[in-house]
Design a protein that fits this description.
By secondary structure, the chain is an alpha+beta fold. It has three domains: 126 residues, Nuclear Transport Factor 2, Chain: A (Roll), CATH 3.10.450.50; 119 residues, Roll (Nuclear Transport Factor 2, Chain: A), CATH 3.10.450.50; 136 residues, Nuclear Transport Factor 2, Chain: A (Roll). The chain contains twelve helices and 16 strands. The strands form three sheets. Strands 2-1-6-5-4-3 form a six-stranded mixed β-sheet.
């Protein structure tokens, strides 16, 4: 199944070709198609069903020509896509050119578009229909400009500042938005929302903005990293009685998570610190490089004192103590490093003297590390355990 952004792009490609059958196949049977605008615009209103969608595009074609869409940014989450750009067209009845910012929201269900919301400068289109060129329009409904000012004041009051319940409550009557603000503020205190473009229609205000914050609290299961991150977003606010009562948001969560998660290079650096600590026999640092729930898997026969599976700092301390106390002069020669996502794998050769027997063990090794939030969460050591066991065998025989 194609992802949602690909479906939206296919939708626009079908629109440009006039392929209504393809568009019909992309929407659900109960689709809702919404464009709040003056009734004088043939495209205005809320339509339901695929037939309503076809009626919408028929109205577009009958009212305008030479349509150009400049769709600059796409944002998605797990159920919807937001698009921000510009719309240009010539009004057929008057020949007047219209140029307007455009925000579109597509909500999906089972891979198809279930809801569509459009916000644009319908005032410019209305004036063009009435025969007045762009620039002649002055809004008769002052609520549109009041709503834009409300959102500007709201962003100014919150961006880069502590988002207390009193300040949020002054502008927000939408409980889900208030909770979202509190959750993001906990993870990114004093985060900023930097508006880049704003458009409004009736009781809706659309903002394209950049989010910027410093990661100081848990977010999406990721412990604080101290990283400064940024990501684009589109928010549609619904305004009633001077407050935000509903919202639709498309946030580039994927980009944000990519910035928060460790890069392969950072994970390799974590492994390198662990190997350096091992070379020094620094057990304290080796444990500090591991998460509290770290698991170590070192398969082998019981004669190898550090073989087995260990979990948690107490058990892995025992692993490192046995390794360091029973061997000397360890040497690890790494021939290949493989790093992808959260995994680092080292291929090479390991040698050490077994203190109790004086035997030098020499074996190829593969060491696999899983890294999360700069800590080792899982470590698996594979080696020629027969050779290692032979190094300990003489001491074992003498003890018996």
């Amino acid at each position: 199944m194609p992802n949602m952004i690909d479906t939206v792009k296919s939708f626009f490609a079908a629109f440009e070709k006039g392929d209504m059958a393809a568009i019909r196949g992309m929407v659900t049977d109960d689709v809702s198609w919404e464009y709040e605008a003056p009734a004088e615009l043939l495209t205005a209103g809320i339509r339901h069903s695929p037939g309503g969608v076809m009626e919408f595009f028929s109205a577009v074609a009958s009212q305008s020509k030479d349509i150009k869409l400049d769709l600059r940014e796409y944002f998605s989450n797990d159920e919807a896509v937001g698009v921000f750009g510009r719309y240009e067209a010539i009004v057929k009845a008057t020949g007047i050119h219209v140029d307007s910012p455009l925000a579109l929201y597509f909500k999906f269900r089972d891979g198809k578009i279930a809801r569509f919301v459009q916000v644009a400068n319908s005032g410019a289109m209305l004036e063009a229909i009435r025969g007045r060129a762009a620039g002649a329009f002055s809004a008769t409904d002052s609520s549109v400009s009041q709503n834009k000012k409300l959102i500007a004041d709201y962003l100014n009051a919150l961006s880069g500042k502590a988002k207390t319940a009193d300040i949020v409550g002054k502008y927000v009557a939408d409980e889900s938005l208030a909770k979202h603000i509190a959750d993001i503020e906990a993870a990114f205190p004093h985060y900023e929302l930097l508006p880049e473009e704003t458009t409004a229609e009736k009781d809706l205000v659309v903002v394209r903005a950049q989010f910027r914050g410093f990661h100081r609290g848990p977010f999406a299961g990721i412990a604080p990293t101290g990283k400064t991150v940024s990501a684009g977003l589109i928010i549609i606010y619904k305004i009633q009685n001077g407050k935000i009562v509903n919202h639709w948001m498309q946030f580039d969560t994927f980009s944000l998570l990519q910035q928060l998660q460790s890069s392969p290079q950072e994970n390799v650096a974590v492994v390198q610190r662990q190997l350096e600590a091992f070379g020094r026999g620094d057990i304290h640092s080796m444990i500090e490089n591991c998460s509290t729930d770290c698991e170590i898997h070192s398969p082998g026969p019981a004669i190898i004192p550090y073989s087995g599976t260990m979990k948690g700092h107490a058990e892995i301390r025992g692993y490192f103590e046995k390794l360091v106390s029973t061997q000397s002069d360890p040497k690890l020669s790494v021939s290949q490093v493989l790093a992808e996502g959260t995994s680092v794998v080292l291929i090479g050769n390991y040698s050490a003297h077994v203190k109790s027997t004086g035997i030098t063990v020499d074996t190829p090794v593969a060491l696999a590390f899983e890294i999360r939030d700069g800590k080792i969460t899982r470590y698996t050591a594979l080696a020629d355990t027969t050779a290692i066991a032979a190094g300990y065998a003489r001491a074992s025989a003498a003890a018996s």
